[in-house]
Amino acid sequence: MGSYQEHVLDGASAVDLVVALYDGMIRFLGAAGDAVDRGDTDGRRAAVKRALDIIIHLQARLRMDVGGRPAQALSEFYTSIFAQILQASQSASRAKFDHTIGCIKNVREAWRQVAKDPVVNPAPLQIASPARLEGQTEFTAQDYAAESSVGMRWNA
Questions:
Q1: Region at 135 (left for phi over 0; alpha for psi -120 to 50; beta for the rest)
Q2: What distances in angstroms separate CA 73 from CA 34, 91, 115, one per listed residue?
Q3: Pick from 9-13, 45-49, 53-57, 149-153: least confident
Q4: How large is the average pLDDT for residues 16-41?
Q5: Whether the Cβ atoms of residue 137 and residue 117 lie closer than 8 Å to each other
Q6: How does DSSP assign 128-156, residue by residue?
């Protein structure tokens, strides 16, 4: 991953990271479909492996004890997507890859809606402007109003 992309993700919330993982799955499955069109078996397999790695990671991060029914629904979704990816790869079917991408995009859109909710996805750390702090000798709680979400564990 390029340094710009790494920098962008440094300040991302847990929900933003989930959306980024979905984007990665979509990108890799698109690459797998392109590889099918080119007849590139090795390229298809490499792209499929990357997409499956993401699914495995997402599945492993689910906390059934905390997430309840939504976590169970996501687990079932990930299991289904995993199977669809394997079927698309085995049959080298662009149409099956495209269908799987469509399914992932639907759930990704739901995550994007969650990302817009400030209660669930708080704003990144706000840095006080130098003009406001001019002449200030002590920092107040307001200067640290929002806590950074970097490193927070996320649960579904």
A1: left
A2: 30, 27, 19
A3: 149-153
A4: 94
A5: no
A6: PPHHHHTT--S--GGGG-S---TT-----
Host H or E run for residue 94: helix 94-115
Q: How is residue 6 written in tokens?
A: 């790494």
In a domain, 103, yes or no: yes
Residue 149 counted as domain residue: no
- pLDDT for 120: 66
Residue 155 lies in a domain: no
Establish if 153 belongs to a structural domain. Answer: no
User: Tokens in use for 149?
Assistant: 């979400």
Structural domain span for residue 73: 3-144
- pTM comes to 0.70
Question: Which CATH number goes with the domain that contains 76?
Answer: 1.20.120.340
Q: What is the DSSP string of 34-86?
A: HHHHHT-HHHHHHHHHHHHHHHHHHHHH--HHHHHHHHHHHHHHHHHHHHHHH
The top-scoring range by mean pLDDT among 18-27, 59-68, 137-146 is 18-27
